[in-house]
Design a protein that fits this description.
The protein is an alpha+beta fold. The protein is about 45% helix and about 20% strand. It is built from 9 helices and 11 strands. It has helices at about 5-20, 60-75, 110-120, 150-165, 170-180, 225-235, 240-250, 260-275, 280-295, and strands spanning about 30, 40-45, 50-55, 85-90, 95-100, 135, 140, 195-200, 205-210, 215, 225. The strands form 4 sheets. Strands 1-2-3-5-4 form a 5-stranded antiparallel beta sheet, sandwiched between helices. Strand 1 and strand 2 form a beta hairpin. Helix 3 (about 110-120) runs parallel beside helix 7, helix 6 (about 225-235) crosses helix 8 and helix 8 (about 260-275) runs antiparallel to helix 9 (about 280-295). The N and C termini lie far apart (about 65 Å). The structure holds adenosine-5'-diphosphate. Adenosine-5'-diphosphate binds near residues 37, 40, 98 and 218.
């Protein structure tokens, strides 16, 4: 282990001690795979285990936003969320330390549905959040706005379309995207969303079950927005199954217009995937845009 590694892990240990107000001597540390963006480690000692994410020191802001997002979700007391412990930088690295949770791969879909509805019951006065954060590695702008349609148009679709245009996306995708932005109010003719607390990046990889059978959500991109945006994302890369949606709908019925709007909400994530990874996501985004424009008749 190099001296930079020593400096880094000593700093992490000191920050855990400071945050927890007690002694902590790490006895074991090992790397874990599975993350999209950061390097992940578990750190164990004195009967405690922490989950540590590392990235460049320049990404500290991303970790601070993630820690605040975890706290915001925990405050709702609706679904289990890892407790953030510390953030900081040392030896050119940024770190985020949180409670380690052991996942056991069990199914908890129905409970997840009910608990997600409870999370969404927590609302704000407006749409957005008190700070920006990231969606994947892309900045996510959360400036407060009383008007959800304007929020989605400018801070979600418009933001990603601008990035896509700069990345060299075809003019048809960008132009059709702008036509869609102009027509957004049509999708909200009989529907008034509330500013619900959202996880914000709720694909299957960010939801697990703990050893007591409780659903756990992590790696959020928190803001207050239409709860349908969270629901839509659960469906994007293979959904949690019918029991989840039935339980959610029992707890808080889903508006019939969701079936159309979910494409509008997932378009944001597909554009983001294009901006992060390129490739076939441009075609997928274009097909989604066409489908939405076809709904306008
Ligand atoms: P990234 O920010 O790089 O996408 P994730 O937050 O998705 O990383 O974490 C990577 C993997 O580590 C997850 O797929 C999950 O299995 C595991 N993981 C995440 N948070 C915890 C935690 N608090 N305790 C234990 N394992 C975790």
């Amino acid at each position: 282990m190099g001296s930079d590694d020593h400096t880094l892990w000593d700093a992490i240990t000191a920050s855990i001690r400071a945050a927890e107000g007690g002694g902590f001597t790490p006895a074991d540390r090992h790397g874990v795979g599975g993350g999209c963006i950061n390097q992940a480690w578990t750190l164990t000692g004195d009967g405690q285990r922490y989950f540590v994410k590392l990235n460049d020191a320049a990404r500290l802001d991303m970790f601070e936003a993630e820690a605040e997002g975890l706290s915001e979700l925990r405050a709702a007391n609706a679904i289990r969320v890892p407790r953030p412990v510390a953030t900081g930088t040392a030896a050119g690295r940024g770190y985020l330390v949180m409670e380690h949770i052991t996942f056991d791969g069990r199914e908890s879909s129905a409970r997840f549905g009910a608990e997600l509805a409870a999370l969404h019951r927590r609302t704000a006065e407006r749409f957005g959040w008190h700070r920006d954060n990231t969606i994947g590695a892309t900045p996510q702008v959360n400036t407060w706005n009383a008007d959800w349609v304007a929020f989605w148009r400018e801070q979600r679709l418009g933001f990603q379309l601008d990035l896509a245009a700069r990345r060299g996306a075809g003019t048809r995708l960008v132009d059709r995207g702008h036509v869609l932005m102009e027509h957004l109010p049509a999708f909200f003719a009989d529907y008034r969303p509330l500013p619900s607390l959202l996880h914000g990046d709720l694909w299957g990889g960010n939801m697990e079950t703990d050893r007591d059978g409780r659903p756990v959500i992590f790696d959020p991109a928190v803001y207050y927005g239409d709860r349908e945006a969270d629901l839509a994302m659960t469906e994007l890369f293979g959904g949690p199954g019918g029991a989840f949606y039935r339980a959610y709908d029992d707890a808080w019925p889903i508006d019939p217009g969701y079936g159309v709007r979910k494409t509008l909400y997932n378009l944001y994530h597909i554009l983001n995937h294009y901006n992060l990874f390129g490739g076939g996501y441009a075609d997928q985004a274009e097909r989604m845009t066409d489908r939405l424009l076809a709904e306008l008749g």
